[in-house]
Amino acid sequence: xxxxxxxxxxxxxxTSFAQTKGEVIVVKDPLIDSLIAxxxxxxxxxxxxxxxxxxxIVSSMGYRVQIYYGSDRREVxxxxxxxxxxxxxxxxxxxxxxxxxxxxxxxxxTKLEAQKFLNELRPSYPTLFIFREKINAPILE
Length: 141
Fold this sequence. Notes:
- The chain is an alpha+beta fold.
- It has 4 helices and 4 strands; from the N terminus they run ααβαββαβ.
- The protein has one domain (24-141): Sporulation related repeat (Alpha-Beta Plaits, 2-Layer Sandwich).
- It has a 4-stranded antiparallel sheet, with helices on one face.
- The longest helix has 15 residues, at 2-16.
- The mean pLDDT is 81.
- Residues 57-133 form the SPOR domain.
- It comes from Pedobacter helvus.
- This is SPOR domain-containing protein.
- Keywords: Signal.
C-alpha cells in the first residue's frame, strides 16, 4: 500500500516542478549600446596621420629595417624621435621582447627596396638589419 502512494506522490511532485514557458528580460546599462556604436564608428576607415587616404590598411608580408635595439626604453624613444626628424614620412615601429626594445622602420614590399634604404642609412646607424615580417602595405603611386 505504501509503494503506490509513494509512486503517486512522486509523479505529482514531478509534474508540479515542470518548467513552463516564460519571458526573458535583459537588464543592461544603456551606455553599452552607445559604446558599441562608438566602436563601429571608430573602426570605419577615415584619414589619419598614418593612413592619409582613409582607405583600409592592408597588411601583407614584407620587410623592415631595424635601426636600433637595446634595453633602455628612453634611448629607443630618443632614437625614434631622431629618425622621425630625419625621415618624417616613414613609419617607425617599436616592439618589446624581453629584455630588449627594437626600433624598426619602413614598410618595404621587396628585400631590394629595404636593402637600398639600408645602404642609405648605413653612415648614420651602425647596426642595421633587415627583417621579414607583416607590414602595412604602402600606398602605391
